[in-house]
Amino acid sequence: MANLNIKDRQAGDVAILDLSGKITIGEGSVQLREAVRKLLDDGKKKILLNLGDVSYVDSSGIGELVSSYTTTNHNGGQLKLLNQTKKIHDLLTITKLLTVFESFDDEGAAVSSFK
Amino acid sequence: MTETIELSIDSKLEFVDLVASVTKSVTAKIGFEEEDASWIELAVHEAVINAIMHGNKSAADKQVDVRFVTEQDAVTVYVRDYGEGFDPAQLPDPTNSDNLLNPTGRGIFYMRTFMDEVEHSIHPEGGSVVRMRKVKRLP
Hints:
The structure holds 2 protein chains of 2 kinds. By secondary structure, chain A is an alpha/beta fold.
């Protein structure tokens, strides 16, 4: 069974990836990278990562969130976070990444925030 | 009274979950709060990943030795690799604005944040050892 499950759906022109499981070194991080890459290749540049069901993240997983953010930016897109768990919030806070990511607890507000 | 649990794994990421299982058992036995237990698990995970990837350079024939020394209210974890060692003082600060968007370089920072003590040293017979200690918080 995969460490990370990813389901993609669309809310208007915003692509939402519902993530569940672990974003850790190896398989989980690679799956996230490939999912974001595929959206960008398909021309979907408004990306919302729903982290509500992510049970575990390590430093590699945090690094992959950063890579997803920078890759999306470099492709002229926007990547935002939805439903951070407390652990992810703590990990982002400690490494001052909360200042980097735009993050939401409400999906409607997140979707409408994209320009 | 202290008790010791030791395990050695080949440098394969698939064995990291095995170390996590032992870590969970150790922290539960000592009675760490759930949140502290999860951060200890993350710190050990990061140390083992570093030993595999950076210490042993993922050479599957090189082992990573993990030793837990438990006390009534604390755990000390030693993670040893068989690589060439490194100077942790040379690591860039991941919270520096110039480094914020680096995809790597946060593992040791998390270890230092979540554990009470973290020390890196060179093993006299070769390889690096990281020693981490966490004391249970008073209720």
